[in-house]
Amino acid sequence: MSKEGNVAVRLGLFVLVGTVLLVLGLYLLGSKRGLFSSTITVSAEFRQVGGLRPGNNVRYAGINVGTVERLSIMNDSTVRVDIALREDQAAHIRSNAIVSIGSDGLMGNKLMNIEPGDGPGEPVTDGSMLHTSIPLDTDAMLETLDRTNENLAAITSDLRQLAERLNRPGSVLDLFSDTVLAAQLRGSLSELNASAQAAQSATEQANALIADVRGGKGALGTLIGDPVAEQQVKGLLQQLQLLSDSLSSAAGEVERFSTGLNDPKGLAHALTQDTIVASDVRRSLANLEQGSELLNENLKALQRNWFFRRYFREKEKDLKRDGSPKD
Predict the structure, then answer these.
(1) Nearest to 45 by CA among 125, 89, 100
(2) For residue 298, what is the enclosing H or E element?
């Protein structure tokens, strides 16, 4: 064989081996991405996809079951994601499954996770719309962590300043280390404890008194619990009220009488304060008494007179006839 023939054979073998390797690589790549397997398309809608791209993996229970096929902006608040699921794997996914956006590791590529939903459901079919959950916004989380770090730094600075103030001479810690102040505090606490015990004892006694009253024990309990005693007390109070009113009226009368005695124009004042008038009144009373005695003697003399004797006898008979007592 000539030299040119050997070169041609080697070139042919190289091309053949390269072609086989290319076909094998394409097959392996296609089998991994599902290019050579039957797929169905399902969709999910999100408010934001957080850097998701076509070709990213789709996992169900941690297993790759498809890829992201297409991203479409539907309106200003909705992004639609079309997912290509391998048909043999789609038979295990139900229509109530929940789709979320995650990442492959902490800083890996974005991917989509499909989690089983609650309750039974039909298997997904081509064109099914799956439920979604709000994805974790890494940027928002980092912003929150940044604000938290700033707050922690401010709190740490305040704590450092507080510690410096406490360590200065004359701070509150020095007061706590003062033995005299500590003794005074202990004495105050002891007094407070004694006061608390006295208050507790008074409270217990008050509770016992209330219990006795509710149970009808003692004089107060009898007055409150016994209806008869209650009525008697009410009657006694009414009588006391009447007596108080009578005493008030009598006091008013005495006050008016005293006012009359002190009035210079009144008869009582003249009788009690003016000695001349009092002597005249006593003399008049004595004359009236003397005149009354003389009148009685004159009447007796008339009864014995023969001219009036008949009149008095008839008068005496009339009195006896009317049932009057005899002399």
Answers:
(1) 100
(2) helix 275-304
Read off the pLDDT of each residue in 230-237 and give the average, rounded to a whole number: 67
For the record, the structure tokens of 110 come out as 């974005």
The more confidently predicted of residues 171 and 253 is: 253
CA distance 301 to 303: 5
Rounded-to-integer distance, Cα 234 and Cα 237, Å: 5
End-to-end CA distance of the chain: 203
Residue type, 107: M
- How confident is the model over 162-215, as pLDDT tens digits? 887 767 776 666 656 667 666 777 788 888 888 888 888 888 877 777 777 666
- Statement: residue 285 has pLDDT above 60: yes
Quick one: what percent of the chain has pLDDT higher than 70? 64
Write down the residue that tokens 């004042």 correspond to: 269
What does the domain layout of the chain look like in residue ranges?
Answer: 35-138, 163-212, 275-317
Bridge partners, residue 94, by sequence: 123
Supply angle C-alpha 106, 108, 113, rounded to 5. Answer: 85
Q: How far apart are the C-alpha atoms of 93 and 159, rounded to whole Å?
A: 55
Strands 78-86, 63-75: parallel, antiparallel or unpaired by DSSP? antiparallel
Confidence class of residue 147 from pLDDT cuts 50, 70 and 90? confident
The two tokens of residue 156 are 């740490």
Q: Which residue has the tokens 């290509």?
A: 84
CA atoms within 13 A on the CB side of 131: 12
Q: How far apart are CA 60 and CA 115, in angstroms?
A: 6
125 backbone dihedrals φ, ψ, rounded to 5°: -125, 175
| b/e 313-325 (16+ beta carbons within 10 angstroms → b) | eeeeeeeeeeeee
